[in-house]
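Narrative progress, year one. The postdoctoral researcher (J.K.) led the effort to move from monomer predictions toward full complexes, under supervision of the PI. The following entry was the first complex the group processed end to end, covering 450 residues in total.
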Amino acid sequence: MTDSIRFPERFLWGAATSAYQVEGSPLADGAGASNWHRFAHTPGMTANGETGDVACDHYRRMPEDVALMRRLGLTAYRFSLAWGRVLPEGTGRVNAAGLGFYDRLVDQLLAAGIAPNATLFHWDLPAALEDRGGWLNRDIAEWFAAYADTVVRRLGDRVAMWATLNEPWVVTDGGYLHGTLAPGHRSPYETPIASHNLLRAHGLGLRAIRAAGGRQAGLVVNLEPKYAASDRPEDQAATRRAEAYMNRQYLDPVFLGGYPAELAEIYGEAWPEFPAADFDVIRAPLDFLGVNYYTRAVHRHEPRAWPVGAGRVRQPQHTYTSMDWEVYPQAFTDVLLWVKARYGDCPLHITENGSAFYDPPTVEGEELADPLRVGYLRDHLRALHRAIAAGADVRGYFAWSPLDNFEWSAGYAKRFGLIHVDFATQRRTFKASARLYAEVIRTHGAALGA
Ligand code: IFM
């Protein structure tokens, strides 16, 4: 007989959101507009022209939302700060009311027995900084460090964990190469410069967090493990390029001090020379690495697939979420063991994991049945436990997301929440996946079965 699943005693059970996706009221109380506010208000940039103007109205409903998290039994909550609420111009003047919101959130969480885990940049850059070149301006690393210093001095006595950036790869791939996310550029010349400045900002941000007395400091990346469709050398090479571009582009500089060789091949003449001294800033030990995992990819050589020449091979035998992401829990186990094998023993947190599926209309007073999300959650928590049992040092899991929210360019139709949000009325309804998660938390994993 196999033992039942049991997660480590001090394992953190969390859930994650980001500011622009849940808060709403983006200009309230003196906040400066973000590049996402601008992008979402540009016709044609988001599904149905949807914006984060209201989202989950969390800015005004925060105490009730924290009460819902408590009902779930969360022991940690990962949120991000809107840089422009704190510093409306991105640098200089501090907006006391904006910082005050996060101060109250942190206190509310602590009163509910939930450890605050804050991310400083989850994609919403002050528009004033975008106007000064955004991530293309080398000065942004110093701007970011000054912002980190302001926030950590105020909240650092109570926040358990700090992440500098969320998913820098998505910022550059969507924002600078394909133009699908803010700021909507499409330039292979800009993309590596933006990536490099994000990494420099991370490095200086890490120093600033520590200098201001922050406790744990780390970085959050999204990893999508890559599998070759065949043994053919060209499929293998395409898969290696895809892996370098998405999974090693940020981790190699942070842990190993340099970019993967494949990047120069991918970018060709657009690949710049970077000052060697920059890597002294970028390569700094992390207190934790945050891993966001959703799906994997199977690749084959496809010369026209820009920029890496690797096409995705659909797996018709598997379920796909409404993001069109394959459900493949084994890759979750694999990728955590890959991180350990390649980069060594850095404590890990799963800072995001979850699934968007169509949900039927809610009925007042009734739990919403979401069997596909229940299956995804159960199977991924089992896969996570297998990774831990095989030696991955994972200290916490943050479900994406406690609430349905604004899924960037895809708008409100992609529902990742454990709790359903009716965006017309702001009514919150628990889904069956929320009940499963609460049971898993209460039993330290035993509710997942053997
Ligand atoms: O909603 C996003 C989040 O902002 C970053 N990670 C992936 C999530 C789902 O797409």
